[in-house]
Input
Amino acid sequence: MPPLAEEDMSVQQRDALAEFKRVRGYDARGPFIVLSRQPELLRRVRPIGDYLRLESPLPAAIRELVILVTAHRWSQEYEWRAHVAIAIQSGITCVTIDSLAAGCRPPGLDRAQGVAFDFGGELLDTGQVSDRVYEAARAEFGEAGIVELTVLIGYYTLLAMTLNVARTPASENVQSACPSAITGAKLGPACLDDRPFPGRDVLDDPTANDRDHRSSDSS
Output
């Protein structure tokens, strides 16, 4: 789904794209070009991203780590390339990025990064998180942080699915201090003896769906 010619746009599409440029400061690109086919969705989806990128209390390094984990999971090269440079600026190392590109757990993650990696990887891998991973995330980020992480993963999954369906090509104009990371979403072989996203105990436990709601921070 390439960009629409202006003469082929409806008034609603032109207005939604103009609003996007006014808020973001640049023309719509990538997934937002696709979403412009349904301008009301573009209007509704963009503010979620604005919040997650600019207002979320999650540290930038945690956010970008989880975004790269999500892009890798869905083999989404546009999303991967768009966030490699941002990840480096936020403090994510080339070693970490190269490990993610290979489908491996990066060495040397700090505690918060390790918790976020496990949470994101397990949620994307199984559609759920085990009690162990949930409790580690709650101890590190609180319940509000768990919600932030979950919505962050959901939002970038939404964009990845949109890009994958539209077969949007990755940008060639990406500069990175980690050249090998630019094509990371092409995916190297996963680490065979170090499963990148361990923790399938929720799915393997037949009683998992019968458990009570997880207790609240306030309980």
Summary: Confidence is low (pLDDT under 50) at residues 184-190, 192-211. The longest helix spans residues 131-166. The two ends are 49 Å apart (CA to CA). The chain is about 60% helix and 0% strand.
